[in-house]
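Run log, item B.
One chain of 1209 residues. Sequence copied directly from the ordering sheet:
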Amino acid sequence: MKFKDPNRSGHFAYINNSVLRIMKLILLIMTTFLLQVSASTFAQRITFNKKEASLKQLFLEVKKQTGYNIFWEEGKVNDRQLIDASFKNTPLEVVLDKVLTPQKLTYKLVNKTIVVKKKEPLFFDKVTSFFATVNVTGKVIDAETGNGIPKVTVKLKNSNRMVVANEQGTFMFYGLNDDDILIISAVGYLAQEMKAKDGMVVKLLAATKVLEDVIVSTGYQQLKQKTTTGSYSVITAKEIEETPSVNLMERLEGKVPGVKFDLRNNSIQIRGVSSYNGRPPLLVIDGFVALNQNLTNITSGTLDGNPKNSTQPETSGNAIISTFNPSDIESITFLKDAAATAIWGANAANGVIVVTTKRGKKGTSSINFSTTFSTSAPANFKNMTSMTNQQYIDFEQELFDKKFILNPASDWRQAPVSEAQQLMFDAKSGKITAAQKDAALNVLANRSNTDQLKEYLLQRAVSQQHNLSFSGGAENSSYYVSGNYTKDQPVFRKNSGESYSVLTNLTNDFLNKRLSLSTGLNYTYAKSTVNSAAIQALSVGRYGMAPYQMLVDDEGNRIGSYVTVKKNTADSLIRINKHLPWTYNPIDELNYNNTITERNSIRVNAAIKGKITNWLNLSVSGQLQKSLNDQVLIQNLDSYLGRELYNLGTVPVNGKLVSGFPKGGIYKSTRSNSNAYGLRAQLDIDKNWNDVHRFNMVVGTEISQNKGTGSGQTLYGYNEDVSSAVNVNTTSTGNYATIYGQGQGRFPFTNSSIFRNTTRNLSHYSSAGYSYLNKYFATASVRFDDINLLGVDRRDRATPLWSGGLRWDIKKESFMDKIEWINSLSIRATLGTAGNPPLTSANFSTIAGIGQLDGYTQLPFVYINSPANQDIGWETTKTTNFGIDAGLFNNRLSVGVDIYRKRSYDIIMSLPLNSTYGYSSLSYNAGDLEGHGVELNISGDAVRTKDWNWSSNFNLSYNTNKVTDSRFPNRLANGGVSAIITGLPVDNFFVYRWAGLDDKGQSQIYNASGKKISSKDQTYTVAPEDLVNKGRTTAPYFGGLGTTVSYKNLSLSVRATYYLGHIFLLQTINQQFYPVDNEFSPAQFSGLLANNTRLTNRWRKAGDEATTDIPGITGSSITSISRFMNSDLNVRDAGNIRLQQITLSYRVPGSLLKRTHFIKSIDCGLTVSNLGLLWVANKEGIDPEYQMTNAYNNLPPTKNYVFNLRLSL
């Protein structure tokens, strides 16, 4: 037997058995003496008060206070056993009895030495125990198949005793007590603890099929989702990797219940709208609010370029969520209800997106490389539903016959006409015969420019993304370092985008892991080039190309067209005024008209976390973010705009040529600089009382600031070779003379501008959770937000926001034990508030126009952009949420349902203001809105065998809203618009009631009483009741469906999305470049006219109104075209089901990789995306998301082929 002495600096004093025998003899002789002195011995008293103290700590304290040495039996006495000591001047004997007896320990006193031993049972106890033991037989089976599991280990808990089951899974365990617990475990299965019982059958669940304990990251803390009360959705790194794409948004669409993604502009909406202006969710990265909250692409053509955006050239988008490196993301958490979002307070009413980047794992190291390559062809011109060449020429002929187009020979200022129109004028003037005209028009009808457009303006889209990362860690440190490169070549030539990024996350532990330091750095450089020449050539407008208009001749020489002035006028001006060439060709513009945007952003964060006790931590963290954006628009003198402005402004004055517009190019630069910091101090409490009670809480305070500055400058007469320019005053009231007359010239951009803004926030917050028996849960949170936008009085600035929630884990109740097909079942309910600060107004005036010069005084001036508004305040949204989560049939089926209701108060809206104040309207907290919805998420495994697996997931979301206070009655007087009207959704859509065409081919509508109103009736005013509400423009029902079939290492995945219950308005015919009789000048008809094939059915003669609804040209007016466009005639059901992608992936077997000794895994895959519609509700088969609006870039994206490879070392 060995004894342990704690008083020798950690070294043990060992006493052999012979010495012990001598000691026993001495003890026997001295018994009488010891009895005599025992009274004085135990007169010693102890004072010791400490929670969760170890036995060793108590023994040392006893020695310190009494001077007694203490020995105990090594291996039989657990000196690390924790106790709660609360003794004050207590006799030593009482202390020892109270502490040691529950541990089944005893002690002896030898002089001033205390010997602690394990208590030996009496003979009677041994006999009783022998007869009380039982022999237990049992069998262990697979919970899925019912087959016995061989070689299972069955171990007696808190003992070294164990047995191993046979090949059939049968075992026998001898000599067990009635209250003994057995631990049953096997490789590949989840271990189970069960009370010993003869004839027991143990069902083990395969470890890979156990529902993962999903970790929810709120940005302030990480929680197990099974212990939360709020509504969350978590997308893990694994789920992100399963959907290969350069754009992160494409990896997320259709996967998150209640979250709507619009890939056309990268917008995200969580549970509908909470205000009238449709604010986006709050974006949080690694625990701090992101500096760039731009979740959607900027609509300016000089900035944008997302391939999915229907209004811009295709280059890399600038929406932050699409520029993330998908390989760097550990998880994306969507916070949806008040219990989830209230901790973020301001800006959280629209939901919160928490992005957590990857960190290294201790004890492992890896090198990972991934590459994604995608390509797609330009959209097919056959899908444009455009007129044929012959139909387009017939359209021009009708315009000519009805004198819509004036003879260019009648006035030198007349706009140029098309090649077909010139032939018509030549035939009319006698220059050519009618037969010659018809023959020439026939040549144009059979000439197509599509091949040239494809060759010179379009190209195959190619995107690539490469990522390399290093991660790992030792016992006290971890690291994750990655680099990423992305390049995008869209279908429009001379458009491109590329980016570089670096991410590092480091963690170090100190002082025996009681102190940790985490640091992170993320740097991104992005550059995009946008050129609009190709997209303008393929769109209706002055630069649009007629279907027979060619780019180059048969020898490959570029053909110049005339846009501003006709050819003979241009020739004269070049000869007399020394003008530069007036011709335009899109191929030239590809080189001379580019907008280049460069963005540098850096994010640095650090956190120090100290472990005060094993249940109390204190952390201090901070983040610094900087972003620098530079944008340069260069239109040199060779560009058409540069030549046109110079030519227009160059005229003879007193016999000399004078140019009011400097000769040279235009150099327009814009720079914006954003700096933000955030500092936070937080106390974390997580206390567990023997798994009966558990309490966790975070309490903290944080301060943040976001400061933005910017400037813009435009240089004219720019010479790129010598970097020179000419000073001009763009605000001069006189402007300059042009070929059309004095004072007609205008500068397209002002000289310079400056802006700056600062937003500061101070917040105090707390979030707490309590659980009882790990099945009853309660949570609460409160936050006070203070923002500088609301003046100097803190009573106006600060607002409290709160939440509370309950959760009940029903499956853990005893009455559920016999229901084996239910593996987990819980219900939850939450209530709370979140807010939105004002964005369009503040308690102080905001100014704009800094840096501009007054035209008269030539002094700098500013103007008040928004006046001070003392009545503006916070918007508040209260949300109620009920949810249920279940795992069924051995967790092969998982179901989650959420039902919620939102009420928004004090919504900011624009109200009329007395114009004598200098403003016609001002923003106030005046509106109310309510909404509700349902979310359903189902996932499961239909097949689960050794080699075959078939899993599927489906989610359904329903969301609607209703304005409860709009302050004013419905005053709509025009169709084709949405309006804020009490009792209706914010996206309701009103249109005219179509009544057909009149006998002149013009539009008619019905009023509320059913009377036909002619578009020529200028006395009738449309009333709100004359319009009809046709429904919502956003889908109330939406979701996604995904399924994966796997055989060994080969997998096939299919994903689809659907949107139902909304409408859209056909825009195939619109006012732009549609001929309106006697209202537009002939110059409006240069370039490409409205050319949709629907126009071929237009009214042409009396009686056609019985067979067509397309207004005629003769007598047409803006009113007639507008009422036709915005009537219920053009409303269509927008419901659709879309096949998003099909992926075939393969993982190289590990047995093959073992031979390399360094490759851990290789995964590769091929994906086809943008597969089109599976079903569409409208009869015409029109894609509601990409309907044709006379522009090539509105066509649906073509099939995209993606190859991806992942390698791990």
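Observations after the first pass:
- The first strand starts at residue 3 and ends at 4.
- The chain has 20 helices and 61 strands.
Flagged for discussion on Thursday.
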